[in-house]
């Protein structure tokens, strides 16, 4: 019987995650704000964790039901065969959330779910009622999600969010999540045959994620996942899929991508992160102001998440320089994420596409400008 799975995502990136799943041969069955559902086998939850670039995490939907009464909630949760998911000695931490529902008291949801699951496990194992559950083994995190009186019991297979790729161990003043950076690259028209320039790259997240995409390197290859300790997805399954992902990587890019920043320490951190990600030779980082940035390549893509400043007025010069740079790159396309209300006016032309995305809790707009298509993607000058 296939598993019902879901990939969670930041608002605005659901369609990107849906396209990623389709590319993995796992077409979405349902898409809502913040989540994309799909069906698959245990190997597919492994593949999704290793390969999804813009998703936050991968969950198993263990059970769903409508409920407005805590006694009914306890009975339904206790009737589930939890031995399918939870090994004998596994820990099963419970988190809960409730939105516009009769079951609105989150601590009660957590405590009742914990008690119901513990009693169900004791009964299945033949232990005396009330016997303690060991909880010394690998964790199986469970989320109780109640929305409009509809209960979803979700098993987190990821652990730390998928943005934790493993390559970024130095931080800048306002780091962008790797999942958001990958989403911006995937929303742009960039591919490995085209030049790419990020003139305000900070610690390098945007160009690094682009290089990983260009080389078809699985973003989860360098990290571990909580489901690696589950019988549902045994270690040999993870080893097999990691080997397949390693084999799928493409050769280095023909010409390096470009990243620049005014901050010397940020540029140093960007080089360090690129090396850790395995794409050090695929990106050329340079300390320079935006006003001095440029490229000899044609039909490239300008990607940027410019600094916003503590007040938008502090960021005016940065955005003006960025707009002027883009206008100098006459046949280029661009994707710029910013909350600055005047950026489109600075560019002096209407964006082909505008998409609302969140950088953390800050609402931003992704301004996308489409330049002319390259005469030929193969062999276009870089």
TrEMBL record:
What Gene3D superfamilies has UniProt attached to this entry?
Answer: 3.30.2130.30, Vaccinia Virus protein VP39
Entries under SUPFAM superfamilies matching the protein: S-adenosyl-L-methionine-dependent methyltransferases
User: Which residue ranges run through the membrane?
Assistant: none
Pfam families under this entry?
RlmL_1st, THUMP, UPF0020
**A GO BP annotation:** methylation
Highest taxon of source: Bacteria
Q: What is this protein called?
A: Ribosomal RNA large subunit methyltransferase K/L
Which keywords appear in this protein's UniProt record, sorted alphabetically?
Methyltransferase, RNA-binding, Transferase
Name a GO molecular-function annotation. methyltransferase activity
């Amino acid at each position: 019987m296939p598993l019902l799975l879901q990939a969670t995502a930041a608002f605005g990136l659901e369609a990107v995650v849906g396209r990623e799943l389709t590319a993995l041969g796992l077409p979405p069955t349902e898409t809502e704000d913040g989540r994309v559902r799909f069906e698959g086998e245990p190997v597919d939850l492994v593949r999704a964790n290793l390969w999804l670039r813009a998703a936050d995490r991968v969950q198993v939907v263990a059970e769903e039901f409508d409920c407005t009464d805590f006694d009914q909630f306890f009975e339904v949760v206790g009737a589930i065969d939890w031995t399918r998911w939870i090994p004998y000695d596994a820990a099963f931490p419970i988190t809960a959330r409730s939105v516009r529902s009769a079951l609105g008291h989150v601590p009660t949801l957590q405590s009742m779910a914990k008690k119901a699951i513990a009693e169900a496990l004791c009964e299945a194992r033949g232990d005396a009622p009330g016997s303690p559950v060991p909880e010394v083994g690998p964790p199986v995190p469970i989320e109780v999600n109640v929305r409009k009186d509809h209960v979803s019991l979700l098993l987190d297979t990821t652990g730390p969010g998928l943005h934790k790729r493993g390559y970024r161990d130095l931080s800048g003043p306002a780091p962008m999540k790797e999942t958001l950076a990958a989403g911006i690259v995937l929303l742009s028209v960039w591919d490995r045959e085209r030049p790419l320039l990020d003139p305000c790259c900070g610690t390098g997240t945007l160009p690094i994620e682009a290089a990983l995409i260009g080389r078809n390197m699985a973003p989860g290859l360098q990290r571990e996942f909580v489901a690696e300790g589950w019988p549902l997805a045994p270690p040999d399954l993870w080893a097999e899929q990691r080997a397949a992902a390693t084999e799928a990587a493409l050769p280095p890019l023909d010409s390096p991508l470009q990243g620049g920043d005014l901050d010397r320490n940020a540029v140093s951190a960007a080089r360090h992160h690129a090396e850790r990600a395995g794409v050090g030779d695929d990106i050329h980082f340079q300390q320079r102001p935006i006003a001095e940035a440029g490229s000899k390549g044609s039909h490239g893509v300008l990607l940027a998440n410019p600094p916003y400043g503590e007040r938008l007025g502090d960021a005016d010069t940065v955005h003006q320089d960025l707009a002027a740079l883009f206008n100098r790159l006459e046949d280029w396309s661009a994707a710029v994420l910013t909350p600055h209300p005047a950026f489109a006016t600075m560019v002096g032309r209407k964006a082909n596409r505008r998409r609302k995305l969140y950088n953390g809790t800050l609402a931003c707009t992704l301004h996308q400008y489409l330049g002319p298509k390259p005469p030929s993607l193969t062999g276009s000058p870089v």
